[in-house]
Amino acid sequence: MNVASLKAQIIQKEKQPLTVVLKTLSEIYDISFSYVDDTVNEILVTTPDKDFTIAEMLEFLNQTTPLDFELLDNKFVVIKVRKNDKPQFITQNLDEVVVTKYLTSGIVKLNDGSLTIKPEKFGILPGLIEPDVLQTIQAIPGVLSADETVSNINVRGGTHDQNLLLWDGIKMYQSGHFFGLISAFNPYTTKQVNVYKNGTSAKYGDGISSIIDMHLPDEIDNKFHAGIGFNLINADGYIKAPLSSNTELQLSTRRSITDLINTATYDQYFKRIFQDSDFEKSKSETNSITQNESFYFYDIAAKFLYDISKKDKIRLHFLNVNNRLNYDEQSTVNDRDEALNSKLTQQNLALGLTYKRDWNSKLSTTAQVYVSNYDLDATNFDVINNQRLIQENEVYDGSAKVDVNYKANNQLKINSGYQFTEVGISNLEDVNNPRFRSFVREVIRSHAVYGETGYLSKNARTKLTIGGRLNYINKFDMIFAEPRLSFSQRFLNYLRFEVLGEFKSQTTTQIIDLQNDFLGIEKRRWVLSNNHKSVIETDNQIIHPIPILKSKQLSAGVHFNKNEFLISIEAYLKKVSGITTRSQGFQNQYQFVNSIGSYEIKGIDLLLNKQFSDVVSSWISYSYSTNNYMFDNLNEGKKFPNNADITHALTLAGTYTNQDFKFAAGLNWHTGIPNTEPISNNNSTNNEIVYASPNSSNLEDYLRVDCSATYAFDFTKTSRATVGASIWNVLNKNNIINTYYTLDKDNNINTVENKSLGITPNVSFRLQF
After folding, report:
1. pTM over 0.90
2. The TonB-dependent receptor plug domain covers which part of the protein (predicted)?
């Protein structure tokens, strides 16, 4: 076809968004397009004639857009910015997208084994009316939370502290509002979230279980965006405003409304979180009641963008996440009324500065410094016993890092860098009656260098990334070598084989000393590895060994994706050493035992996901795993089930989208977590419970059905509104998520059961400008 014919067709048809045209062409020619969203956004084009050959269609697009369309292996098209239209140093080569719509819109699977979540394009998931980042990732096979919180996410059997949470490159130590029921990160200012279960890049340290890497928008588009909204828990607002042609301010804030009005959602959340805390227990005391309780949370996030030149960029980041609880405990002592105030505050402050330079089309560098400060404070008064307990857990994390990216060509790229980190963690306990004070502070400084090479074949069928990270801790004079591997091979254009592997280590962990620490609400406290070989006793304290956590993981998977039908199966093996009993939250015979051990998990994650055009998406995910502890000093050295061992987990779900209306419903089922029951007819008289073998039984199976719906419409000529409604646990299933046992004063065994959220409705309303 000649140029004149092409131009004639351009005149005949109206233009459409390029993203819409590409989807149509994918179906017509049975090909896949790979591109960066920002490259094709806002480009309009007429749809090529259906009688065009693939070559004619690509030539048509080359002539009618400022982009280059390169055909690879007759089935894969890479879209790149034409070098003649834009400076060469911003040209970007995109990794292959394996699944563009994974479960729902806004979730994309890449050929390095990772998942990318884009909240602004998020469709809908059962039980969610807003794109809560840490709730959304629990829809991924192999990721769940046994107690329904975002502060206890188990990725392939790991504990939550083994997940690395990054907010614009800054490590975060607090993940939840409402003490774990709501993500602490505002989804409406989060541009992209990258989730890695295995095979992570060498640039990531820590996080032996998973990486959750959140990014705010990083490009200045000189457009104004704003939004406000509320639900039955909180209200929020954000603004993205250009200050000049080369500066921009992003600002967001969110605050709970729970201290202003009571809602059915708040009642369920409050009941769930505080059911086993000192706050609730004091209400049951005959001579003590609580009153004037006040709870609220808020977060503030800001990002300032400054493009010094076309090659130099500066970014300033700030985040403040805060939870506060206050309540008065009143009692009558010697015919006199007494009231004292107990309180709990939890806060994570983060401040960072990033400088990026694009030296040329092949070389770019990024330098970042940041400070992250986590502080958990509790003051607990016991009026009956005339006792006051002050507890504090503070983390100071300062880091400086330099990252270098070099792209030799479209097939080969190299990434390397250096990171220095100083982490200091302190723990304080102060009791007035009897007088006791303990303060422990540990500091670790570490250096890390890393490097990796990524290779992508010309036909985009083969991708290999191999690298390593070298960590040095000068306090212990220890070096850790951590190799990383990610390999992907595509066959027949719809079948892909994947192998991922990694070694990792981390020096921070969370432990529980006593179940009623920090009012029994936030029981976990951060501690640093001390590398002690044995217990150290001083005048005021006993210091137990806390090793450095180390993990090894290997996984292999096969992914079939054709005609909008995805079958994905992954098998994995993970070993983690250096755990302690205090980090695992035992509530049985090992609750007050201090021992060092390991765990090993073997499992399979399976997903069947069928897309019916843009209207319906349905999926079934199933995970099978065996997760076992090994402590040389416990259970006669024999392995026993991990506290997070969930053998079977099943999800059935579906979404329906009809233009501006979205609906989702789903069922979540998994086997109960392990439990240790007392031996029947326990006649012990030494005020101790005699238990059966550790974790030798299980709680009842967990079952929950959720649904949600949203509807969007034009509110005014310049604004768009979205209303939503959801019901969590539609069947009001009485799930037991934890059981433990206590002795009363008569030496009788009492059973304590922690229950999940009951039926919990929520509604939301949002305006976007």
Report:
1. no
2. 133-207
